[in-house]
Amino acid sequence: MDPFGPKALAVATVASGVLAYRAVKKKTLTRAGAVTAALDETVATASVRGPSQVLAVSILAVLLSLYHAYHHGPEQAMQFTAGAASSSSSVKASTLAAAILAHHAVSLGDTLASELGMAFASSPAQHPVRLILPPFALVPPGTNGGVTLYGTVWSIVGGLLCGIFTLAMDGIFGILPIDDDSNKLFLLGYVVRVTLFAGLCGGLGSLLDSILGATVQMTYWDPETKQVCHHDVVAFDSTNPAPTSKQLRRKHIAGFVPLLSNEGVNFVSVLLTAILGGWVLAPLII
């Protein structure tokens, strides 16, 4: 299918529009965020998101997809092995396709890990949340850099789902590596390798996101509200214009340098995973 053809544009417009509309109705996107999300259907509706949050988890995939479509045309099966059927152009196209898949895998994997992991972590005694860095201290649910076993599993599941969906779409549009010279065993191997690659990227991306959250993003605990916060001081309250020093200070529980916001952590984690996935892992696995 021509990536710039009317059929592709119609499918993308309808799909992204429906997802954005449902996200606004369910209050998982602001209206401004929905306008941004309508340009990209890969945004997961995990929490209330604005334009900056939408772009942080989509702009890279959009740019890579446009570059792939413009320079390499319609998507083909990923091919990294040397041989007569492989060329420099096809390897470059496969690298871009793998990077895009890695991007989507970490986006969905991290969303499932955060939301479903926190759901299970609502009972800390059974599903404790631990900081990803030594000494692996117990932290409240929602702490940047906090991980659970369920969250880790769901991050991998999210990647596996992206791999399965990608293969399903490739099958629908006839770009799986099936021809007269192919056999079922080769096709099965390709399916397994792509799915494994996507699952690995989902887990890797979530791991990178947690490490970034535990190092370059600050997390505090407010003992009065019993909530995780991102600032160490209480916002100005007109009913209490002169709060005490005790009220101003919150307990620091994670982070070394206040360098990145949530959007920044998301962007850097998908960027690193796309690079590692497309240029390092894919040639080794697929």
Structural class, from helix and strand content? mainly alpha
**Helix content, binned percent:** 55-70%
* Range of strand content: 5-15%
The low-pLDDT segments are 32-47
Average pLDDT, rounded to a whole number, is 80
- Give the overall shape: elongated
N- to C-terminal distance: 23 Å
Order of helices and strands: HHHHHEEHHEEHEH
Task: Map the helices and strands.
Layout: H1 6-25, H2 31-37, H3 51-56, H4 59-72, H5 88-120, E1 130-131, E2 146-147, H6 149-172, H7 184-215, E3 219-222, E4 227-229, H8 245-248, E5 251-254, H9 262-285
Antiparallel strand pairs: 1-2, 3-4, 3-5
Report on this model:
The protein is built from nine helices and five strands, in the order αααααββααββαβα. With 286 residues, the chain is mainly alpha-helical. The protein has a three-stranded antiparallel sheet with strand order 4-3-5. A two-stranded antiparallel sheet has the order 1-2. Helix 5 crosses helix 7, helix 5 packs across helix 9 and helix 7 runs antiparallel to helix 9. The two termini are 23 Å apart.
